[in-house]
Amino acid sequence: MPITSKGSRPRARVSGPCVCSSPWRQKPLFYLCTLLVLVQSTTVLGALELQLDEEQPAGTIVGDISAGLPPGEIGGLYFISDHESTGVSNDLNIDETTGIITTARRLDREQRDHYSFIAVTMTGVTVEVSITVIDINDHAPVFPKKNAVLKIPEHTAVGTRFSLEPATDADKDQLTTQGYAIREGNIGQAFRLETKRAANKVLYLDLVVNGLLDREKRSLYTMVLEAFDGGSPRRMGSMTLEVTVTDINDHAPVFNQTRYHAIISEMSQYINNSSFSGVITLNRPLDYELKRVHELVVQARDNASQPEVTNAFVTIHVRDYNDNQPTMTIIFLSEDGSPRISEGAQPGQYVARISVTDPDYGEYANVNVSLEGGDGKFALTTKDSIIYLIYVDQVLDREERDSYDLRVMATDSGTPPLRAESSFTIQVTDVNDNPPLFDQQAYRQTIPEVVYPGSFVLQVTARDKDQGPNGDVRYSLLKGKNSHSDWFSIDKVTGIITTASALDFESEPAPSVTVVATDNGRPPLSSTAKVDIVLQDVNDNTPVFSSNFYNASIKENTPAGTCFLEVSATDEDRGSFGAISYILGSGSGSPAPTHFTIDKETGQICTSTICNIITAMELADVILCTHNILFELARVRVSVVDINDNRPTFYPVLYTVSLSTHSAPGTSVVKVTANDPDAGENGRVTYRTVPAGGTDSFIFPTSSTGVISLSRSLHGKANTVISMVISAEDGGGLTAPVNARVNVSVVGGSVASPVFDQAQYFFTVLEDVLRGTAVGVVRAAAKTGASKDIFYSISSGDPDGYFTVDSASGTIRTALPLDHETCPSRDLEIQARSGSPPAYGTSRVRITISDVNDNAPTFLPSSSESLLLPEITKMGTVIYSIQATDKDSGHNGQLSFNLVSAGAAGSSGQRTFGVDRGSGEVRLIGTLSYESVPRYDLQVVAKDGGAPQLSSTFTLVVHIQAQDAQGPNFDTLTYRVELRENTPLNTRFLQVRALNREASGTGGSSSSSSSSSISYRLRPDGDAAGFGIMPDSGWLFVRSSLDREVKDMYLLTVLATSGPGGTGRTGSATVRVTVTDENDNSPRLSQERVFLAVRENLLAGTGFGRVSATDRDAGLNARLTYRLLHTDRHFQINSQTGEISTRLALDREQQSSYQLVVVVQDGGTPPRSATGTAHISVLDENDHAPSFTHARPDRELLHQVMEGLPSGTVLGTVTAKDPDEGENGTVYYSLSGESSVQFQPLVKVCLTSVSSS
């Protein structure tokens, strides 16, 4: 370290306190005081200035005090004087003897940069020593923050300054911060740095914008700023500055083109869309016919406070779409403008004028018009394709056909074409060109000799094919001397001939009259018919059966229509009064037996259905022999004798079970079951095995038990499946059509069967759920607890296939519609299998089918009844007990009764009668008066307890019998009669008779006179509208068409009034008309085309689908049977249920689809039928292994290859085929063997290449 001295110069005295060096501190005080006196009395003679670099190690020599002595002075002992705050004593070591100054420690200029003290020699010479610590570059510039953030708006002017915090450096002068630089990140020289040193010697820093800032091009600059000092080498510090260029609204939106063109169909769907997407959408429908081009100005604006806006022009052309139907205007050319034409119109006469227009343009407006219907009687013509004319093309005959259904269709030329159509019916008006014609030229009728005047004789019918007045027929009797026309009269409208006066058998036993039928045409046309009337005696004898009780037996399956018993009865009356008709009944008011019919004339009893052993306990039937009011009863008991007509049937057909190799001999394996519904020996089933290999380990069923047991140990047969085929035979020698198969999986002793989490499950499902509804889930687990490899199936308990189970999840679902009334519950056995060969576990599942209220109450034997009640009946008397039933169960089947109406009696009737809500007993709770209310029509509603409730109404007609009645009295209170539906109009079917009560004790003539003043009428109500009654004779006749499918029972009230003009007292009777069925409805399939699927290889007899049909008729006419139109060797159909099943195992590879024509036929005579088509797809099973096609399986395929070939060289092709479908038929290839590592196959193709090894 250099030491410098500037020589001696005059100095001021040293005064003030002083500090002596250590040697002097140990001298006596005397010496110290002497020195002080000397120092204060001397003058400064020298000065010494020294310099030393900072950070030198301790012990570094700073200088020698003697260098500062005046010339000639010799140093010696030095006394050092300094202040405590100068740091000399701490930082420096001064040798008082030699005057050598050294550092006591490393000096730091930044803490102290100067030292000074005074050294005094023993001679009193003073030296002022000044030591300056020279700075070295030991500090680097430091920014206040390592990271700084600055936001600058884009487009800030070049030269704009942004002050940054400066870096500081503890060094001084040239070694402090000398400058700044942008080391990195100044992309495009967008910024520069400018500095300025302030008075405090700090070098301040400004960031200056040096170029154009554009946020859209660059929004962020990350720069590293560097500060450096003046040392050598210089030190540097850095800071990261992130400059974010903030956005200003300096760009207007720019379209990619100034004008847009678009074409859109007028039929495009319209939607509402956001305005931010730029997509032009429709917000209302377009109409080419209203506007073809739309000009739009689209404006794009940004979201700034002062937004920028740009416009573009959009031209949208609307493309015409064929969206307008042609329109037609039809004007009929008849006088009143209605669609009609006279049957006398000549060919070529115009019927209607049609004008056609279409609002569309171009080819869409070209319209073609066509005419359909009319059976060629009408045609269409046009001259300009705008106006069309319909004209008569062939001669018309209204009697052949009185109307024609025409349809005019106008079709445009669009794609797809639109069309308008108009259907109308042309009525052919009548001309009087046909005379009335009787349905027979001669009539013959037999009537009793004693009948009341006005009694019905017969009805003649003449029909006129003409219409309107031309077809209105009026009847009259031709007067003549010997015609006895004065005995009879004829109703000019109905043609009903009645007696006009008393008849005389003795004067003329067979009178005849001539009836004239005349129409109302101009001129009128007429015809005649002869009526011969034979008089007979009156009916006064009751029929008598030859026996009161009959026993009969028939064999089961006796064909329908087989007659097995003839009953007979005799009547002593002659003629028609001795004619007997037979009717079947039940004897308890319930409906007649459905299994039998009786010939009304011969009394032969025949089967109406095929009876089986189930109906063997047939109830005793009552045979009703009747003629008008007189009748007799007899009983017949029919026994059904069983025949062996049923084969045993296995259910299930497939039995699967697993056995452990540890199972002991004698273990029961499985029980097979076949059912035979026959009785006795015919129904006893024995089981045998069909010989097959691998079954020597089992004891097979040879009796009726069907139990298969283990006969020997299964050791050594692990992982095998033993299959057995079991046959069943009944006591009559019939065998099961399909044998049962038993598959026994033999598993190792350590293999555990799947175990269900419950031994038995209980589920409930409503009967009205849809097919596919989930009922419940069963779960099983293997020994490891895993359940994903377990598969489920229904092994038994569901022969009809009401349920399915998902094989993977165990979810049980409905497969067919459910009915609580026929099947309230099912007990299923669910089987779970896992492993290969599979191990099986089972669990029981009881599914309860809950009732829903789907059946309304029904009354027994019918929904109406009538009775005669004396007016003196005591209050509280039960007059009738209503019997009703409801097929539903629980609350849905609990019935309550309520009296809702009493007919014309109104509220007084409800105060007169009451109904027990629980039992249905009708009681008299008030008093009766024939004069006040002679009849009550009680309406009783039976409601069930379901929600919502279902109800039915019972009608009880109560006739009040006066204690001393004077009104007409009917010969019976209730008449019952059957009428076939479709009975011709005006057909008479019953004559009612009433007598005046006051004449009951007089003679016949008096009675006759009294009865002649009685007039009959029907009480006007809903049921009476379809019937009429002759007021004089009491004959009932059909007035409107009967249709059993619409209404099958009518309850009529006949009123008989005495006195002239019907002004006297009135009596009443009830007529119950039952409409019997005619086979007038064909069966109707629920689906005319049904699509089914069945897996190949299923056992013969497996059902997989069904067809169903309904028939609106009743009884035999509605009993349906199913058959295949053509016998098929692959499939069969159950004649009763319509279920389609396999006859043999199917092979999809031979035939993958079938089409069957199904015929469903009712039991009517003649029968009606309908046909449908079943399309059957055969689903694939993986039942074929791939086979190579290059050669026989026992021969090798040789390929030669040269050594040294590169990897990937194709050597050859082998091909394998699999006839299965889909993934089952996809073939993958692999190599095996010792050299297989040197080759590799290409996946799914048959090329082999050399590998790199």
From TrEMBL:
It is a single-pass type I membrane protein. SMART domains: CA. Pfam families: Cadherin. Its main location: membrane. Residues 44-143, 144-255, 271-328, 341-438, 439-545, 546-650, 651-756, 757-859, 861-970, 971-1085, 1086-1188 form the Cadherin domain. GO terms for biological process: cell migration; homophilic cell adhesion via plasma membrane adhesion molecules; mitral valve morphogenesis. Heterophilic interaction with FAT4; this interaction affects their respective protein levels. This is Protocadherin-16. It comes from Cyclopterus lumpus (Lumpsucker).
